[in-house]
């Protein structure tokens, strides 16, 4: 998540930001205080978003991301449509009426999106760039959340309902089977796919308009989250990957270790293009990768490195392709090697 591109409305709709404002803990305070130190130019925007959130007296949102965005867009459209008074106007009360109407619309939109007080509370987790987190679910299933990702689920799982989680980013799942008498389904919801399992281990990544599900053990069922865009159902066997992109669901054979090695603090690459490696560095570590020549993006690399020591990967890339790969702060640059050295 590139918070530096956020405006007031984006911060208001962000669950991790809202948690910091309303229910701060060590994780949120550490992240946002450091982030504000690094981005002083966003202080006014953050302050305004905090004021709005503190006006909202509703519980944490259980609405879907689509519902939040739709409501936010509608509310902000109405707010922007409010006529602004001309400079030097003799009727300042019109400005206050306009501002009051804008705040009322924002509160109404929040009321429609945020559930009533009797709704079940959700547990939410989020990771920063370069951070991983292990999560124990109410049924003792385990999830490892990769960097720059978020997960939420209901705190109370009864035997009469399916177990459900909502994922943005990437996570590895180790799901326990439930007794046959209970509803044993476990469903992972992403923006594009619903992944249904009984008891299995698998990796899910959802970024950049694409969702990938790689199965290590067991069996899973994939179906488009939006049934109007695709009613096809795909079943995966171990060693298969289901990919949803542009409303198309495709199944291919893969090596699961390549896709889930990050959970064991290793990064494996198997004929991986520099383009995809750069994207992984951007998604999981927050680096900006600059490649001087576009044709280098298609170079492929096979190898591995510790997930917590990217310098080893950069050295391997430089030696493999006889290029200069340098890192400065949050930027990585790939350019011609200096042959004079």
TrEMBL record:
Domain FecR protein: 124-221
An annotated Gene Ontology molecular function: sigma factor antagonist activity
Record-annotated Protein FecR C-terminal domain positions: 266-334
Source domain of life: Bacteria
Cited Gene3D superfamilies: 2.60.120.1440, 3.55.50.30
Pfam families: FecR, FecR_C
Organism: Roseihalotalea indica
Protein name, per record: FecR domain-containing protein
């Amino acid at each position: 998540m590139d918070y530096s591109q956020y405006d007031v409305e984006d911060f208001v709709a962000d669950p991790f930001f809202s948690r910091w404002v309303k229910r701060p803990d060590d994780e949120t305070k550490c992240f946002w205080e450091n982030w504000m130190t690094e981005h002083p130019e966003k202080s006014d925007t953050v302050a305004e978003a905090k004021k709005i959130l503190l006006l909202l007296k509703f519980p944490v949102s259980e609405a879907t991301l689509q519902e939040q965005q739709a409501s936010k867009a509608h509310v902000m459209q109405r707010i922007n449509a409010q006529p602004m008074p001309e400079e030097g106007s003799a009727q300042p009360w019109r400005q206050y009426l306009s501002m009051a109407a804008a705040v009322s619309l924002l509160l109404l939109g929040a009321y429609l999106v945020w559930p009533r007080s009797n709704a079940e509370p959700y547990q939410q987790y989020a990771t920063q760039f370069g951070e991983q987190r292990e999560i124990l679910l109410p049924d003792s299933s385990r999830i490892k959340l990769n960097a720059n990702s978020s997960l939420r689920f209901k705190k109370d799982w009864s035997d009469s309902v399916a177990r459900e989680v909502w994922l943005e980013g990437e996570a590895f799942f180790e799901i326990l089977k439930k007794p046959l008498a209970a509803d044993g389904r476990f469903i992972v919801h992403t923006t594009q796919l619903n992944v249904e399992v009984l008891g299995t281990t698998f990796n899910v990544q959802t970024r950049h308009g694409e969702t990938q599900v790689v199965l290590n053990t067991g069996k899973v069922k994939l179906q488009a989250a939006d049934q109007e865009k695709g009613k096809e159902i795909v079943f995966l066997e171990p060693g298969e990957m289901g990919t949803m992109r542009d409303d198309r669901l495709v199944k291919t054979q893969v090596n699961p270790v390549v896709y889930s090695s990050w959970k064991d603090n290793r990064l494996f690459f198997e004929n991986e293009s520099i383009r995809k490696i750069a994207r992984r560095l951007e998604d999981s570590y927050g680096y900006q990768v600059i490649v001087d020549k576009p044709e280098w993006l298609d170079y492929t690399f096979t190898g591995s490195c510790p997930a917590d020591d990217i310098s080893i990967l950069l050295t391997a890339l430089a030696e493999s392709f006889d290029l200069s790969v340098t890192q400065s702060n949050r930027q990585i640059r790939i350019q011609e090697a200096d042959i004079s050295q």
